[in-house]
Write a structure and sequence with these properties.
This protein is of the alpha+beta class. It contains five helices and five strands, in the order ααββαββααβ.
Length: 168
């Protein structure tokens, strides 16, 4: 399933026409996914195995979700997030690029922290009244002040770097 932002951002930000998410994993996982794809394990078409009919994709999903990798075999990698926004401002086509990085010493727990820390900041902003939006909402559907939010991220070691480029 794709990230929800691909559907929610165009609802809340005027003029947005296209949103996509991309991701990557360590090279070993990416190589395995290529093999799974090449051999049909991503297929939704049922196959017969004896008296059973299974969907390869469902089998692979269940197997991967129940597989327990030994901790010593895990690759020590970190998380890097990148957002690119392309649009027009003052009749100029511009690209804004945002990179989010974390302290390298977070190591194997970086992915968890990169999820938990922003969520924690949002909850604290709700609790203190900094965010006034109530009910169930997405970040882009609320009154979160991005500069204040990014400042809170920086205090916890997550840095957001903004770059701007003119697109020809």
């Amino acid at each position: 399933m794709a990230h929800g932002e691909t559907r929610t951002i165009p609802k809340y930000i005027k003029g947005v026409k296209h949103v996509e998410t991309r991701g990557f994993w360590e090279p070993e996982t990416m190589n395995a996914m290529r093999v799974f794809y090449d051999f049909g394990f991503i297929s939704k078409e049922p196959i017969k195995i004896g008296d059973l009919s299974i969907i390869p994709r469902d089998f692979l999903k269940i197997r991967l979700l129940t597989w327990k990798q030994k901790e010593e075999d895990r690759w020590d990698w970190t998380t890097f997030l990148n957002v690119e926004v392309i649009g027009k401002k003052d009749d100029k086509k511009l690209k804004y690029i945002y990179d989010a990085t974390h302290p390298l010493e977070w190591g194997k727990i970086a992915q968890g922290r990169m999820t938990a820390v922003p969520m924690s900041i949002g909850i604290q902003m709700l609790a203190t009244g900094t965010i006034k939006t109530r009910g169930v909402f997405t970040a882009e559907g609320s009154d979160i002040n991005p500069k204040a939010f990014f400042s809170e991220l920086a205090e916890r070691g997550i840095k957001i770097v903004e770059r701007k480029e003119q697109v020809l």
